[in-house]
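Thread: quick sanity check before group meeting

JM: Hey all, I'm pulling together slides for Thursday and realized we never actually wrote out the predicted structure for the chain we discussed last week. Dropping the sequence here so it's in one place. If anyone has concerns about the input, flag it before I start.
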Amino acid sequence: MILQRLSRNLTLWVLLAIVAGALLGHFAPEPAVRMEVLGKRFIDVVKLFINPIIFLTITLGISTMGDLKKVGRIGGKALLYFEIVTTLALLIGVGVAALVRPGAGVAVGKLNTAKVGEYTQRATEFSWGDFLADNLTLQVLLVAIVLGTVLSKYAGREPIIHLLKTAAKYVFRGLHLVMLFAPIGAFGGMAFTIGKYGIATLLPLGKLMVTVYLTMAVFIFVVLGGILRYCGIGLWAFLKYIKAELLIVLGTSSSEAGLPGLMEKLVGMGCAQPVVGLVVPTGYSFNLDGTTIYLALATLFLAQVFHIDLTAGQLLTMMGILMVTSKGAAGVAGSGFVVLASTLTAMRVVPVEGLALLIGVDRFMSEARSITNFIGNGVATVFLAHHEGALDHEQAATVLGRGPRPLRFRRRHLSSGEYLGEMAQKAKPQ
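JM (edit): ok, ran it. Output follows.
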């Protein structure tokens, strides 16, 4: 019985795959690098499910939810939350970098800037217009909102809704089948990372690595843990609930790989479907807590390496630039590293050539960024569902195990079904 349970435990298999990939990368780097294709192909297949799931979740949710005012209210609260929490993440990153000074004493030596031009070119080409045009997820989100609103006003919508529900059932069934191959994707991603860059590359910049991981751990357990505590949910229980998705993100260094599973888990723990559908995909582009912390730490790290003492005005300028550039990280190939290049280019204070110091270790820090972003979006969804009265606390307690009660209630908290029913009732003409 125990062996049968273990054989079906996806989390265990993903963890074993990560360990196996790391061992292969360390002891046989050349064949390990060739395993990159396994990680990439797994992520590519999972990406195929992201937009259909967002489309179906949003359309079905809003079609029973009511008018667009409710959607706008949730969207407005989400953007306000994202701005507040990412600003807090930025302040934490700046504060830790100023206190620990990870760049102090790092020898610059002769920088190999051959690859830096690739990132700086893409950084200067980045624009918000291109970001919105190229970000298919946001486009799908907008189309789903419009279609869901139209369907909510259409009297003959039942056959269409039935068709969409059937499609959603099969999409999630297909996703579950794909997730059976998650250990292969995690193995390929970890083998490639260790095989190409090697553990030895971490030693010269070990202080920066440790600082990044500890800072993100503090942010997760203090800030995000505090937010969940306010909602009456324990952080450890929540992390245990999404542990399979976290390990997939760790193995592949991509938060996209766990995004569909996170949305399903959030609905399963009692968050109303429309809230999950609106907050998670929007947060993927605008709520990048881990990326924000990394950008702040990396920028000040390079300033310290080059013995540049930033003035108060320059620090404020840097923070202002990061508040804008960090929002586009998910829409840029190369993610945080390209955005870091664009930040340094806009600041005109820290030499962009310093990026050469970070190229070798960026992949290792990418895991910390992805996991923090991933947890941050899950916590944001729980908070906004709680704030909207759209979090079923009884269901959450059943799924996660009994934990702390919410510190206070803004209003009576409803189950997902009750929330949708209430919204639909309010939307009816009086």
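AS: nice. The chain has one domain: 2-427. Residues 2-427 form a domain with the Proton glutamate symport protein fold (CATH 1.10.3860.10).
JM: adding both to the slides.
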